[in-house]
Amino acid sequence: MAYRIKDVMISDSDIKDRVKKLAEQIENDFNNEAIVLIVVLKGSFIFAADLMRELKGNIKIDFISVSSYGDETESTGKVRLLKDLDTNITDQNVLVVEDIIDSGLTLHFLRGHLQAHKPKQIKICTLLDKPERRKVDLPVDYVGFVIPDEFIVGYGIDYAQMYRNLPHISTVEEY
Length: 175
Ligand code: IMP
Ligand code: MG
Fold this sequence. Notes:
Layout: E1 3-10, H1 12-29, E2 35-41, H2 45-54, E3 59-67, E4 80-83, E5 93-101, H3 105-115, E6 121-129, E7 142-146, E8 152-153, E9 169-174
Parallel strand pairs: 2-3, 2-5, 5-6, 6-7
Antiparallel strand pairs: 1-9, 3-4, 8-9
Bound molecules: inosinic acid and magnesium ion (MG).
Residues 43, 68-69, 75, 98-106, 151-153, 157 line the site of inosinic acid.
């Protein structure tokens, strides 16, 4: 089965506006205290880069990488840690930056992993949320856009490592 790009679901200017709003909300909630952004690679790197530039104050960044998908469009449900943090997050305000929450299994696993380091608090920010697909209960603090159960690509998000360079979010179709 092969996939190709179909329709624009969220334009680049809509993303830009929403990212600004999310940053305002985050700044208010964290009371201008220092924040460590934890970027879940690879899909979140463009969102995180844009979000970080909208945030003022003491913002640090670190990267973590997990794998659960392979080249399929359905999660295998098994989460594997591929790259751990370099930063000590004990007693820090942590904001996990994710591209998309689907079953919730990835962030459920990551939350537990990060909690073990005893941060001051952990909040979760995702650009996209597919609540229909949730398999585990997961508190999500900031959501850019709630989207229907459709496979999407672009703005950092891939299908089989492709289409991350699209500036907008697009649906894909089988052919
Ligand atoms: P979860 O563990 O099922 O919540 O999966 C979350 C991860 O699956 C996201 O971080 C994405 O990397 C990937 N993912 C989920 N839905 C999509 C999609 O529609 N397109 C591309 N990747 C997706
Ligand atoms: Mg991801």
